[in-house]
Give the backbone structure.
Amino acid sequence: MGNKGKEIVKMNVDELIDKLNRAFADEWLAYYQYWVGSKVVRGPMKEAVIAELTEHAGDELRHAEMLTGRIIQLGGTPILKPEDWYKMTNCGYDAPEDPSVRVILEQNIKGERCAIDGYNRLLETTRDKDPVTYNIALQILQDEIEHEEDLQALLEDIDKTTKGR
Ligand code: FE
Ligand code: FE
Ligand code: MG
């Protein structure tokens, strides 16, 4: 990273890189949970659920790209081994072993809530200290809030459809 670019970061850069790598691990696991979930999901409104899961998978991968861009800019190295995703993750991974739409949506809603907490913490940590990382965390947080809302709305629609009106 350029000297001036680094100079304006008013916090411990190694600690910041560590936090970004933890979020990076979360994004890869979220990506895969959505992606593989979209392949195995079964039940009412399956097509709408597949479309949403696939779209969110793409968003999570884009978040991983945003985070790795900042990690490298700060002079860090993104996690190089997938096995380390499990060691670094904040939010974990819920395998879609039960393919029913409700279970898969609930698992992903849980993941989104964890992501919202995580990015909200990252915003608090970087506020007034690193405007560039702050901006990235804010953009991602906005997406995660939309993800949670989309999944909750789908779950409500499915409940209406299957429980009668
Ligand atoms: Fe994400
Ligand atoms: Fe998300
Ligand atoms: Mg969506």
Q: What stands out?
A: The domain at 11-163 is CATH 1.20.1260.10 (Ferritin). The CA atoms of residues 43 and 101 lie 6 Å apart. The chain has a mean pLDDT of 96.
